[in-house]
Structure formats: C-alpha cells, structure tokens
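<given_protein>
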Amino acid sequence: MYDGGIYRSNELLEMIEDVGGVVLQKTRSAQMFTVTMSIPGEDRGEMERMCTSIGGTVRSVPLAGTEIAVVGPTLGRHHMPHPVCDVAEVLRQNGSITVVMGLARGRGKATSQISVTEEDIINEYDAAIYVLGNFKTCVEAKKHLFEKIRVPVILVSGPMPEGLDEYCEAIISGVGRKSERMRTPDERKKLEEISDRVDEVLRARKKMLEEDPLFVHPAELKQLLEEYEPIKESLRPAPIVLHLDGLRIKIPMHEHGKAISDMTVYGRRLGDIARISESRINDSSIIIKIMTRSEVNDADSAGKGA
C-alpha cells in the first residue's frame, strides 16, 4: 500500500503498469492518495525507491483484495462500542475493505435473532468478525447468530467461550465492551492479534483455492470491468471491490446484469464462468463469484452430454 500525496502519483500508476502489477484499490482524499497494489516481488525494492522519491511510503498489507464484515448484535450504544470500530480500522490498515453491520434483533441472551436476509448479506463477504460482549454465558447463548454463516467466522469477545469451536475458524478473547478507544500498548497488540488471526484464516482459504484455481483471477476481471462505462462514471467509493473468489460491483443488477454477463473473458462469456447475482443490500451492487476451472470443465461436459 502506498500512502502519500497526489503529487506525481501518475508516475506511480505508470510504474505499476510497467512492472506488470495491478491496482487493487485507490483512494484520494483532498491532497492525500492511497493505492493498494499487487506487484511482482522482485520489483518491490524499485517500487519503494520510486515511492520515497515522490514523498510517500510503502508497506505490506496482507489483507488486500478482501472485503470483511464486522458484525455487532445491534447498532445501539450498548452493542456497538468503540472496539467494533477499532477492529474494523485495523483491518483497513492491513488492506481490507471493511463494513460495520448491526443486526436488527441481536440484543438479549434469550431474544437475539438473525434473519435469513442478514445471513445472506454476511455471506457476501470473504469473512465475518462477530464482536460480542463481556458475559460468557451470553456469548455462548448467541451461537445461533453465526452457526449458519458459510463464510469464515472469527469471534471476538471478552471472556473465552466454550463449545463454539465448531462454528468459528478462530476465537479471540480479551476484547469486550468498553466506552473508549483501544489505545494502550496491550490493546493495540490485541488488535494486531485479531488482524493476524484473520490473515491466517484467509490464507487457508487462499490455499484451498490454489488446489482448484479460479478460471480467472479477480484482479484480471477487475481490469476488464474498469472499461465498462457505467462503472467508470460511478461516484460511489471503491466501485469495484475484490473478493478472494470474485468481486462486488457497485452498480444495480437490474440495469447492468445482462451486459455484465455477456462480457467476454478469455473467449468465454462471463455468465458461463461465474455466478452473477444481485446483492441482498437493496440492489446496491452485483456479486460475482468466479467458478473454478473444474467447475467450468464440469459445466462444459454436462453441456456436451446434453
């Protein structure tokens, strides 16, 4: 990730293209410019020297190319304390796109609920981090909030709960509700622990994808989609968001779904090599899940057989 000023940033973008890299995300705020990129390892030294010469810095961001949901029981002050925002922020600092989500009826040990729509929304992300509270029995009683979630779940809470290992890829204790930011060295260390565990979980997911690779890498598909005029004209922040196995495109499905499906990728129709669906968040975006090579071959075999 490059952090610096807008001055001479065009030289940075040109160099990324020259070394065969890909811009994963870029954000401009006033005169500040942030670029998350993927480049060949052998070119990192030269990239760092170039970034230093234009007054910026470069650092590794292991969560780049992911979108993660940080979930609290509700959006109320009782359930959406500062640690939720601190967890989301440390993930952003490590390259991920994050959203903070509160459930409509998540409060109360005996009355907490999660709807099917909320489960579907959470399942659109690469992972979900549930930030629960300070009471062990309450945390254990709320397992139904994430037991049906299909993406990796990382549970963060005050006490260490028992009996939840089968529902979570990781559990981090020591972060409960508190009314102030996590500023002390021990608290910052705990936030880094959360980020490291998320990285471990997602690395395992990447390794699984390497065993049966995607038909096309999400970053390659992003480059194609960036030429689509409605996406170019989109004023929403980060109109294309990378996932481990696909992308989120922030344009309405009912207006652009067919055009997106009919795009050509390596001689194939995109709709034939990916599952394209409407986001459950009020038609706000299109979710593309790229099929693996074996899935595409199986679909081709089934088509020939028919």
Notes: The mean pLDDT is 90.
